[in-house]
Amino acid sequence: MQERRIWFSILAIGILFQILAAVFMPLGLDAHVHSTYVSDKIADGDSTLDWGHLRIDGSNQSVAEEIPADDKWFVWHGIIDVWFTIFGISLLSLHILGLIISLSALSVVYFCTKSLWGGQNALALTAILSIYSPLVRSTGRLYQESIVILCATIILYSIVKILRKENNKFWQIICLIFLASILSIKGLPVKYALYLYLPILSLELYRPRYKPVNNITLLAITVVISGIL
């Protein structure tokens, strides 16, 4: 009971951080760029960036020109488009959107973890995630990390369901959809989701049996990962 209260306290502090970030932090450049694409599409039906290139290589490129979205980020822009249509185009609505997405990500993490490994583990993981500084910054500046966490959680949940042989086809479809969503959110070609999906599909053919990792192996893996990072 005492441990549960501690995690609840950390979660409450984390949610407070999210709210304060949404209230006081300025929107990031990415948020302004994507909201401009969306608002321009709402205005004239053509999603373009009238500012020209964001990163210029020389003086000849400093003249403003229309830069089309070319259907990149269609999931991210679709979310912003729906939000603007309902709540209007304003900085306030974007700040609220950032908070809603982050709280939704925390909720998805909690319920997915609770479904797989119980409420205590779900509470602890959600509490730690709520004070994770990149997530707090994502809330305040409307970056994409929050919605990526949401999608990635559903992907991992789907993989566990596939490994447990629970409605495999349904969770494979869900996994593929959210893989494509993450790529779209980051402006990458959605077709790459098929390549990322192949290892997950292979779980139907080969189901690995996991064994406990001894301390020496775990230490070696930690050192290698730390060295790479």
Automatic annotation (TrEMBL):
The chain crosses the membrane at residues 6-29, 82-111, 117-135, 147-164, 170-198. Coiled coil: none annotated. The keyword Transmembrane applies. The keyword Transmembrane applies. Residues 79-223 form the Glycosyltransferase RgtA/B/C/D-like domain. Keywords: Membrane, Transmembrane, Transmembrane helix. This is Glycosyltransferase RgtA/B/C/D-like domain-containing protein. It comes from uncultured Poseidoniia archaeon.
